[in-house]
Amino acid sequence: GAEVVFSVDCTKLKEHFLPGKREFDRIYFNFPHCGRKAGVVKNRQLLAGFFHSCAEVLAQDGEVHVALCNGQGGTPADQPRREWHNSWQIVAVAAGAGFILSDVHPFKAETIHGYKCTGYRSQDKSFCVEGALNHIFTRSTAPLCFSPVSCQTQLGNQKVSFQVPQVLVDKINRGFLEVNSSHPVRTIKEKLSAGLSQAFPLQNISSCLPLLHQGHPSGVCHSNIFWTTLSPGEAPSTEKMSQGLADTLLCSHFGQDTDENVQEAIPKQFYLRPSLLPHARAIIKTRTFSPGTLQVLSGPVFRKCRITPHSMPAFHEMLVVLAVSRGTENSCVQMLVDNMKTTMNSLHQGVSGIKPSISLQEATSFGAELGDFAAFERQLGEIQHFLSVGTDTDPSGCCVGVIRTAPDELKSHELVVVSASLNLDLLAMLLCGISDWRMLWTSDSRFLRQFPEGELRLFKSFSLYPPSYVHDVSFWLPGREEFDEVAFHTLARRVSGEMVVSIQLRDDFQQPGTGRRSLCYRVTFQACDRALGSREAAELQLHLRQEIQQQLGVTLR
């Protein structure tokens, strides 16, 4: 009962089927080959034409199955694996047509009734299919269009709109912590809160925390801050600003409020909150809390940072604050840590699937290995304990939280305030086996479908072996001042739409005589959730070079 069509050109599928018959759920191509002794380049071209043709006739949720002999694909699934240049580079070729590799498994001819492997070098004889693999491709989500976005928030006692930095456009107002969300960061936050409530009375005060602060954050490196401007016509009135200035100042400074800080706050400079700690300190200063009750704040925070596997320009922070009687703070801190350890172990045990063992560790000293999260937290004040999660592959662990006591000026004769800050995104990665933080922010519905509401599972990536593209960029610095690497990394994030996964300094050269300094960086482009082809990566590199010259004032080499 099936229709069989002959003499079909696999690179022009649309021409062989009427418009009403073009929505195929599956397209199979078993062992494609140009014929005779065609080299790898010609066969890549064949696959490129085939995938572009599939994009015109495949249903939105359809699949493309391509079977290749062992080693041809060039992926880690091939055993043994050929050198990249000697393979068909199937994942990169498919990416050029908007497809991602979603599954790969052994090709078993014996399971297909009536199938026979013939056509060895265009002859009617079989060829070896031992170790052959079936590659299953699906459509990628379309590249995001980062148009300018304004966002509304509370500033003092007035609502204002501000321009969202382009690098954060897809990370503002995502609602991951909302009541109807099934995102793993919310599940972890809710389960941690439930665990803490077993030991302490608990109160959530996360509603209406402003995204925007005004002034100059003392103690924090300004290159780590996302500065922004209010939308045209949105500048707060002088009267309303003076009414709300006291409240704003409480949320604007990380250190002690002095007259000098007040003067610095008067210029209308605005920045996205890098931490929830100022909100907690505002609560402490106004004494609007009950001693012995755990206050829980949560929400997204924003920090400029270098590009590393665990460094995030946006993540969800959970901050718990506890006021205790003076002299009992050490025992309360230990109770807090023990409770978190117990809850973390319970969360880990509840994750379905085979997973690496993890452990919540407590440290009193800071090391570089604890990562950028801990490094930034140190800028916010003295830390008593670092909380890190160790795994089988990384026993030393990754810092996911810190515990500190409030500064002396916020203490009273009777009470000491203890706070614990946790990076929920890092916890979600470690608990659910998510190797790339960008996956937490994907717009692809296949991510959230793996996490039913209230349940944590081991994540299975729907984009396997994404290709990476390496480009170098070299430039002369404009003067003798130190180069701002954080600004460079942030620029690369913005230009590429978070497609840059690594920036490494390859050479630092100073010209004899003139003293001019030149830097050379190696930039690696790679997507985690969508197709990224070599042509698009090359265009991103070209755009990055132009923006580096315009925005950072360097001279390209």
Task: Describe the protein's architecture and organization.
It comes from Prunella fulvescens. The protein folds into 3 domains: 13-139, Rossmann fold (3-Layer(aba) Sandwich); 149-230 and 270-443, Bira Bifunctional Protein, Domain 2 (BirA Bifunctional Protein, domain 2), CATH 3.30.930; 469-556, 2-Layer Sandwich (Alpha-Beta Plaits), CATH 3.30.70.380. The protein contains 12 helices and 20 strands. The protein has helices spanning 40-57, 90-95, 184-196, 238-250, 259-265, 277-286, 329-350, 372-379, 424-432, 445-448, 485-496, 534-552, and strands at residues 24-30, 58-68, 99-106, 133-139, 150-155, 158-163, 202-204, 212-214, 227-228, 270-272, 294-302, 314-325, 358-363, 385-391, 398-405, 415-423, 469-476, 500-510, 517-525, 555-556. The strands form 5 sheets. The chain has a 7-stranded mixed β-sheet with strand order 7-11-12-16-15-14-13, sandwiched between helices. A hairpin with a 6-residue loop joins strand 18 (500-510) and strand 19 (517-525).
